[in-house]
Design brief:
- The chain is mostly helical.
- It is 66% helix and 0% strand.
- It is built from eight helices and no strands.
- The chain is globular, with a radius of gyration of 18 Å.
- The termini are far apart.
């Protein structure tokens, strides 16, 4: 709530820059998830479908807010400034939520939790290691989200189309 109050009265392009920055994060994390579906092998099938569908959906609209920001004359300096801020906020919120979840299920102080976290975040196929380049690319003057195209979302949606129904589609 307080974060939203800070934006009151600001140029609406700032909110678009925040949204574009956040969408970049969710798109690169979604892409990583789609490239590592084995991490969900023990997940209840409906939840696995929901999370992988959501990942595919994030990848599909990753350019929307960015394109609107650009079309409205958004400034590159502000785009990058907001991305730096959102990087700190996003990762801080993610850390805080993860700690709360691990504390709630009693695994926060277990060695296996920390070993698994190190492998999943920093390992050869780890989230941070594999997404750092995509994250860093946002700072380039010629950056556009479409430059990070991957067929994973389209492939997953096509291969799993029997598991979901498009809203508004004929039954």
């Amino acid at each position: 709530q307080k974060r939203m109050e800070l934006m009151a009265g600001a140029d609406p392009r700032h909110a678009l820059a925040v949204t574009a920055a956040t969408e970049h994060f969710t798109a690169i994390f979604a892409e990583w998830m789609l490239s590592h579906p084995e991490l969900m092998h023990a997940t209840e099938p409906r939840l696995k479908t929901m999370w992988l569908w959501h990942s595919a959906e994030e990848a599909e609209h990753k350019s929307t807010a960015f394109d609107l920001y650009q079309a409205l004359g958004g400034n590159q300096d502000w785009r990058i400034t907001w991305f730096k801020r959102i990087s700190i906020i996003f990762l801080s919120d993610l850390r805080q939520q993860t700690i709360a979840n691990l504390r709630a299920d009693g695994t926060l102080w277990k060695w296996g939790t920390w070993r698994s976290a190190a492998r999943h975040l920093l390992g050869r196929n780890g989230l941070l290691r594999q997404t750092f380049g995509a994250w860093r690319s946002y700072f380039r003057a010629d950056f556009h989200p479409s430059q990070q195209h991957s067929p994973l979302s389209e492939d997953w949606l096509r291969a799993n189309s029997a598991q979901f129904k498009v809203v508004g589609a004929a039954a």
